[in-house]
Amino acid sequence: MMNKLTFITSAEKVGSQGMKTTAPFSTVALLAAFAIANINAHGADPVLTRVPEGGIQPQSLAGFDGTVHLVYFKGEPRAGDLFYVRRAPGSGGFTKPIRVNSQAGAAIAIGTIRGTQIALGKNDRLHVAWNGSGKASSHRGAPMLYTRLNDDRTAFEPERDVMTFTGSLDGGGSVAADKDGNVYVGWHGSTPATEGKETERAVFLAISRDEGRTFAREQRVNPEPTGACGCCGMKAFADAPGNLYLLYRAARSGAERDELLLASKDNGQTFQKLYAHPWKVMTCPMSSAWLGSAGTNRTIAAWETMGHVWFASISQDDGRVSEPVGPTGDGGQKHPVAVSNAKGETLLVWTEGTGWQKGGTLAWQLFDTQGKPTELAGRKEGIPVWSFAAAFARGDGSFEIFY
């Protein structure tokens, strides 16, 4: 299904109510001309695949050998279960589902922000982290749970709460892993002294140096006292050279809720701020974030600001962040995912119209190797309640979207 879209760059001004002022004519004309010139210059529409068993909140990654790893949620939204399947290249179908959580009902889908996140680490072992439900065992309220595939890749180890002294877990946590066996579980929360105040929340990281067998006590890692938007999600990602990135929403003064990108070059010991995308809004927007690989020397970040989704690339060499771009619209764009193929093209996927107890529409747009929009775009109704989409790039350069 084809659908022409127009685009904005961060040079265009978007007001607090989502109103956009017109960019210089040369910018609009250039983007429009480029899109027209590239009609039919790119591949077919992405393959759309419904999540197995009618599951929701898919998370997908492709391994080095092309195997697709998929985790999804099933059951009661307040206390359900996570399941894992994989599909090897040429197999034609997914494996039999394996339940991720050992304690029944330990996962949560309500709110669409607090669900599972996954990472592939050393030897393509899958690592999973999620906010625990009210049924999950915990010593300090809602737990930040972690598990990994066992050595035989046949089952998951019993999940563990990696929070030791922090509390007030609200927005979703994340997990990252690298080829050297480092595993990072991150979340934003509070120490007992801050009493859960949003402006005093911080980003914490629990680090494992042995592929997730053991974790050190969590440490605060945001270098500035930014606060953290209580019910917004965050994303962690470790690139091929070992750089670690964290993307989250701040909460300075209760109204300055910029999306912040942090980076570490020393395996999570210290972080520096690479980028901030401003947003002044008084209430938590319940936004999510995305980080992933974009080829041999780039990482890709995607997020939501002022009701619109954006993405930018990060140089793994010097940390430079490109000018963010994204599709225009009437707002209501949420849950962005950005994946790149071997050619350097990027597929941006998001939802529209989703909300509290409300499903919506899947939307996507392909960008070329220079980050310019192509003619390949589409929409499809049918995002279930409490859900969003996942995507990955196939070996032949095409894309597949799970919803």
- Total strands: 28
- Oligomeric state as shown: single chain
Strand line-up in the sheet with most strands: 3-4-5-6
Mean pLDDT: 89
Your description of this structure?
This protein has one domain: 6 Propeller (Neuraminidase), CATH 2.120.10.10. The protein is 3% helix and 39% strand. It has one helix and 28 strands. The strands form eight sheets. Strands 3-4-5-6 form a four-stranded antiparallel beta sheet, with no helix packed on it. Strands 7-8-9-10 form a four-stranded antiparallel beta sheet, with no helix packed on it. The two termini are 16 Å apart. The N terminus is likely disordered.
Q: What are its keywords?
A:
single chain; 403 residues; mainly beta; Neuraminidase; 4-stranded antiparallel beta sheet; 39% strand; disordered N terminus
Entry summary:
The protein has one helix spanning about 25-35; strands at about 5-10, 45-50, 55-60, 70-75, 80-85, 100, 115-120, 125-130, 145-150, 160, 175, 185-190, 200-210, 220, 235-240, 245-250, 260-265, 270-275, 290-295, 300-305, 310-315, 325, 335-340, 345-350, 360-365, 375-385, 390-395, 400. It is mainly beta and about 400 residues long.
